[in-house]
Structure formats: structure tokens, C-alpha cells
Amino acid sequence: MANINLSFEEMWEKIIACDRKYDGLFFTAVKTTKIYCRPSCRSRKPKKMNVEFYYDITEVEKAGFRACKRCQPEVEQSPHIEVVRNVIAFLINRYKQNLILKDIADQVGLSPFYLERLFKQETSETPRTYLEKIRIDKAAHLLKSTPLTNLEICYEVGFQSPSNFYKVFRSLKHCSPSEYRKEYLNELD
Hints:
The protein is of the alpha+beta class and 189 residues long. 52% of the residues lie in helices and 7% in strands. The protein has helices spanning 8-16, 57-62, 81-93, 101-108, 112-123, 127-145, 150-156, 162-173, 177-188, and strands spanning 27-30, 35-37, 51-54, 66-67. The chain has a 4-stranded mixed beta sheet with strand order 3-1-2-4. Keywords: Activator, DNA-binding, Methyltransferase, Transcription, Transcription regulation, Transferase.
């Protein structure tokens, strides 16, 4: 499976949010306890300085970490999970591109109809809504970490139209991009 293009900070945000979208794509290893978890694990969060991230379960185990008993990252949930992980990795790595379902289906060697049905069965979402969530996660990260304008961020994260960006952002974050940035800056004061 391909590695995903996420920075340490972005992966840290995913584990703090217990984000299930990234389960199986990377693992959180805690140096002090020698335990590794899924990003969605609900266990107490470690100190940031004690965390390492691994993309592969064999690598994290080879490094001497053992699986968390709470989230059981070594247990596969479904026979289709590898296809779903490949699709998610593809979406994360190409979120800036104008992707259609056929592009994604071609990548994993399935028909668009079957891929959408399988993906929805495993994640409760379509590849398109999943991609929108990835783009909004990226946008939120950029709003917090860069001085880019909302419009620049809209195009940077792969949206083709500002109106769609604002609509999707509001539906997922329950505020506008400007309100999101302002709220974040107020938290820092």
C-alpha cells in the first residue's frame, strides 16, 4: 500500500480528533508505553513528544511496539478493507486533482458502480463525500497554519468552485472558513 502524504502535525490532529477515516493508513506508536494504536483509538492521548507514526503494521511491530488492547489495530474488520484503504490512500494523495469515480475505480481495478457500493458498505460514505471530507480537513489545517486567503485555500485543496467549497465547509465544520480561522486565532490568545 502507498504511503499517504500527511505531515506529523496533520497525523497528530487526526489522533486528537479520533478520526476513523484514517484507520489502517497509519499507526500511532507511543515510545514510553511501547504500544501502537489506530488513529481513532479512544485511549488517553500521549504527549506529542512521545509519539511516532508508522504507515505499515509490520514496521511498527518490528520496531518493538505491541498492539493496543482497546482498539486492536492488528485485527482486520472486513475482507474488503485493503481495497478501501487503497482508495482512501489514493484520495488523500490526489485530493487536489479533479477526480471522478471512474478515475478512482480504474486505480483499484473495479467498476465504478461496484466500487461505490463496496466503499459505501465499508465506510457509510461515497468516495465523493469522503474526498470532500479530506479536502475540508486539509482546508482547516491550512486555515490554521498559513496566511492563505479562503479563495487560495479553496483551489489549493482541490475544489473547483468557491461556492461549493463554502457550502461543504459549512456543512462539515458548522461555520464558514473565515469564522473557523477567527475561532482558532481566538483560542490562541
